[in-house]
Specification:
With about 200 residues, the protein is mainly α. About 80% of the residues lie in helices and about 5% in strands. The chain has one domain (about 1-195). Strands 1-2 form a two-stranded parallel ribbon. The termini are far apart.
Length: about 200
């Protein structure tokens, strides 16, 4: 048993991180502050996996951000006066977010390819990383549109992880896409404040 665990440590780590990840997204979709604890732990486990096994360096930076965002999200959600209130941006705001995100993706891509010659799928990795930063921030601020961003990001990340041999993480991202749809529909039933 010990020999099997040592030979399959990356698989075990991936499974445990996936369990924490699913718990995080389901709890976030249900607007539960405890989601952030699961997100922090799952993200910390993922950092190790991405650096030492998958060589997805941008993803490891992203998951480090998730750890800090988890702390920020916990504090922000805890300090919100009305827990059943979520917010919605205007379409114009999202156009600026998408344009800015695209520019940041290209800058990050060129930086990645310059400093990390061994990076795999650097453009896709850069896209999912930058837009995940954006969507996570929107989640911490309880912006309902975060779920729409996550549907797209998680679908692209499904491909990225599968192409790098992370089949379990790939299934996780696919399930996240469906949970994001559920989260959007669930949050639509809350008190949506237009900004």
């Amino acid at each position: 048993m010990v020999n099997w665990l040592s030979n399959n440590f990356d698989l075990v780590l991936e499974i445990v991180a996936v369990i924490f990840g699913i718990a995080y997204v389901l709890l976030a979709a249900k607007n539960k502050i405890s989601c952030w604890i699961f997100g922090i732990i799952g993200s910390a486990l993922s950092i190790f996996l991405f650096i030492f096994y998958a060589k997805l360096y941008a993803e490891s930076v992203l998951y480090l951000f998730y750890v800090f965002a988890g702390v920020y999200g916990w504090i922000n959600w805890k300090n919100q006066k009305d827990n059943h209130q979520v917010f919605q941006h205007k379409l114009k705001t999202h156009l600026f977010i998408i344009i800015g995100g695209t520019i940041a993706t290209l800058l990050f891509y060129f930086t990645m390819t310059y400093f990390f010659s061994g990076a795999k799928k650097p453009l896709t990795d850069s896209f999912t990383t930058i837009f995940s930063f954006i969507a996570t921030y929107l989640t911490t601020k309880k912006r309902i549109e975060n779920w729409i961003y996550w549907v797209v990001i998680d679908a692209v990340t499904t491909y990225l992880y599968y192409s790098r041999g992370l089949e379990i993480y790939s299934l996780l991202m696919l399930s996240y896409s469906f949970i994001a749809i559920y989260g959007y529909l669930k949050w639509k039933k809350l008190d949506v404040v237009k900004l």
